[in-house]
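Design job #97: recover the sequence.
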């Protein structure tokens, strides 16, 4: 029977089968194979500097402190504080979130990060950061600093209002400077930290397009936000009068 099929018909059948198979492959791509989202229709959003979604708090005075030990055995401490300040970035009024990082008790970095939240969707967007890298008490560089609207940089998504497993999105879009991105890998993690046991947490795998080898996991708890950043775990959280000195 096979020998009775005309060569032309055979070619047509092969092409048809291949086309059908290729279509099936395209339509069966899993979320983990989807492209990284980098367009967020920022101009069509109603963005405000304060508010919260389930996993990200943008309310003045809210603070999280994470502590741990890195792979080199050095102690680390990270304090994240929502300041009672705003800054306009790329035409959007953003909230100012200060991060202070210590290593072996020495302050090594202070950054001011600029975020805004969509009133409708509760998506939180990242508009850039000012960075002071510190050595022996002196500012030695501003490595990693960027602002949306400057040098081709655009706002990224830091935390979706309705996270879903498989979502892949850019958090920072500053070509050649900062191209961090995240993939949501779980919505039901449970994690014990010095600050307590947290369930129904979002777990992300984060890295940068500038170095595909850099990867780390972060965990975000409902009503709080970041509770695990690599080896650092949440030790304190709540509202304070001002930033940690």
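Job complete. Output follows.
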């Amino acid at each position: 029977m096979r020998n009775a099929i005309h060569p032309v018909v055979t070619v047509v059948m092969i092409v048809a089968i291949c086309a059908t198979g290729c279509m099936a492959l395209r339509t069966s791509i899993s979320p983990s194979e989807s492209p990284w989202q980098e367009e967020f229709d920022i101009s069509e959003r109603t963005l405000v500097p304060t508010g919260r979604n389930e996993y990200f708090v943008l309310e003045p005075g809210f603070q999280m402190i994470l502590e741990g030990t890195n792979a080199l055995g050095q102690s680390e401490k990270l304090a994240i504080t929502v300041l009672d300040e705003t800054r306009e970035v790329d035409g959007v009024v953003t909230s100012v979130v200060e991060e202070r990082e210590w290593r072996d008790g020495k302050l090594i970095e202070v950054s001011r990060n600029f975020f805004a939240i969509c009133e409708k969707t509760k998506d939180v967007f990242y508009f850039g950061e000012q960075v002071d890298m510190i050595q022996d008490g002196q500012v030695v560089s501003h490595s990693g600093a960027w602002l949306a609207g400057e040098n081709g940089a655009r706002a990224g998504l830091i935390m979706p209002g309705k996270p879903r497993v498989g979502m892949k999105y850019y958090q920072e879009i500053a070509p050649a400077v900062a191209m961090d991105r995240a993939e949501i890998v779980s919505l039901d993690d449970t994690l014990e930290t010095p600050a307590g046991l947290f369930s129904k947490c979002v777990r992300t795998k984060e890295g940068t397009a500038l170095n595909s080898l850099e990867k780390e996991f972060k965990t975000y708890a409902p009503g709080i936000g970041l509770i695990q950043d690599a080896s650092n775990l949440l030790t304190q959280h709540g509202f304070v009068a001002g930033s940690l000195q």
